[in-house]
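Aim 2 progress update. The chain analyzed this quarter is reproduced below.
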Amino acid sequence: MGLLCVAAAALLFCREIIAKVDWSLILVFILMFIDIQLLTQLHFIQSWVASIPSFSQLELLMAAMLGSQVISNVPATILLVNYSTAYKVIAYGVNAGGFGLAIGSLANIIALRMTPERHLWLRFHLYSFPFLLLSALAAWALLT
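Predicted structure tokens:
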């Protein structure tokens, strides 16, 4: 109900904002969270998700980092905290997972979409993958 009131007020009083909103980015953000729910209903994902509570620290760290590369770090966090109470491991993993692919963190996507520089995506990934490796090593070092 609150969302409808805000949307109505924006349409009535701030129409220029509606035209400037990056709707595709909002759609990507919404789809990330919808995808988590839909993905966890797939049979082969359900068996993996059921095994999360028995993950070692290294397996959970890797799941958090790799999950971030596939569905972004916030949805990966939401998925993993539903099945594990090793919050520190998850936090380190998803923070490290924010590097690597641009999807690793929604903040990456927002920043890259805002820049007028055309070939920044390639240069971003040239730096981001080494940072993923370094932050993964740092996260593991902090946990051991």
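DSSP finds nine helices and no strands in the chain. The chain has a mean pLDDT of 88. These observations will guide the mutagenesis experiments scheduled for the next reporting period.
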